[in-house]
């Protein structure tokens, strides 16, 4: 058995040990929490942008080529990180997008994520419509009203919501589709890297407080991944096409350090809630630095896309992707393959290293 396959199998065994209801491949069993609410961007969007006038959409093949339901709007060949976490939490189906959630479906959670969305309202506007973090939070407030109506009163709704997990993963586009686009946005002219990270965290914290005011108590903050290692960044800025772009990754880490501090701040000042941080940067960098350990062979190119190493833009409609998709970390110029997403999801749920999650992982958060 190859080393990568061994690691894959070991991770499945470890995950199954921690939760008898989970499976490495299928969604089944009773959920460990009653609901899972998701806020984010294209890394976890599962269809909200399908009905928006935008270039940031993926409701066409080859996106979803390996997903049982086809091209749902997920920016991958298959499952996203939150799909993997949904499985591990024991839900019997994936969390429905806000655009499609109806009736009592909202009781098990809603996915509000929108491709090209950022913490700042203007982020991603060059791509067209998108739902910013603030807009996603407003949609959650609307959902709370629906939950109150379904359960009959505010107290019942609050008791239900406080046991749910709230996943927040935004900030990537505030760099990719804002700060590092100086010809379109003025943020890099107005702010130093440190100042920009500060202003992002201030806005981020403001939205988190709204979620807390509307009942959220179990929070998962997903840090920004190493954007400077994406095929797009390599194609645009790396001289050799494989060395990660330090300037971009350094800025991302400035944000992540402040996000960890925000976790500490909220855990100290909001004792009725629990906040954790997932080190997406470190987990994903581990895949890039030790690809063979996890069964990957290609780290600097997308499985589909256009331009240098498929890194200039995302997949074109009906483009033929690579056949050996499990060998690739990146699906297109920006987004991971299902194979990479599953590993990141597993390590977010049950930390394989002490640096994967702080101060606890999602598995332990669900038990609280």
Automatic annotation (TrEMBL):
It comes from the Eukaryota. This is Uncharacterized protein. It comes from Smallanthus sonchifolius.
């Amino acid at each position: 058995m190859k080393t990568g396959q061994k690691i894959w199998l070991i991770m499945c065994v470890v995950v199954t040990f921690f939760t008898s209801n989970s499976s490495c491949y299928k969604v089944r069993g009773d959920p460990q929490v009653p609901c899972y609410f998701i806020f984010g961007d294209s890394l976890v969007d599962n269809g909200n942008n399908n009905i928006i006038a935008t270039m940031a959409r993926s409701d066409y093949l080859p996106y979803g080529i390996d997903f049982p339901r086809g091209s749902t709007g997920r920016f991958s060949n298959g499952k996203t990180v939150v799909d993997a976490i949904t499985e591990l939490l024991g839900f019997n189906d994936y969390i429905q997008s806000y655009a499609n959630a109806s009736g009592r479906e909202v009781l098990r959670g809603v996915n509000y994520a929108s491709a090209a969305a950022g913490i700042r309202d203007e982020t991603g506007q060059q791509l067209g419509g998108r739902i910013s973090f603030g807009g996603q939070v407003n949609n959650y407030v609307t959902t709370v009203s629906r939950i109150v109506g379904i359960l009959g009163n505010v107290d019942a709704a609050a008791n239900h919501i406080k046991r749910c997990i709230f996943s927040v993963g935004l900030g990537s586009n505030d760099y990719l589709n804002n700060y590092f686009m100086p010809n379109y946005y003025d943020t890099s002219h107005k702010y130093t890297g440190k100042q920009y990270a500060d202003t992002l965290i201030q806005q981020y914290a403001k939205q988190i407080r709204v979620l807390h005011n509307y009942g959220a108590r179990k929070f998962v903050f997903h840090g920004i991944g190493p954007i400077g290692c994406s095929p797009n960044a390599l194609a645009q800025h790396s001289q050799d096409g494989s060395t990660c772009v330090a300037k971009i990754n350094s800025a991302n880490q400035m944000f992540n350090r402040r996000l960890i501090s925000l976790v500490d701040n909220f855990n100290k000042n909001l004792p009725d809630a629990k906040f954790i941080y997932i080190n997406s940067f470190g987990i994903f960098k581990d895949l890039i630095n030790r690809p063979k350990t996890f069964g990957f062979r290609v780290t600097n190119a997308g499985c589909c896309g256009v331009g240098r190493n498929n890194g200039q833009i995302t997949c074109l409609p009906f483009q033929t992707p690579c056949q050996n998709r499990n060998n690739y970390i990146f699906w297109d110029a920006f987004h991971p393959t299902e194979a990479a997403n599953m590993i990141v999801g597993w390590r977010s749920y049950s930390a394989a290293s002490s640096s994967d999650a702080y101060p606890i992982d999602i598995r332990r958060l669900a038990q609280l």
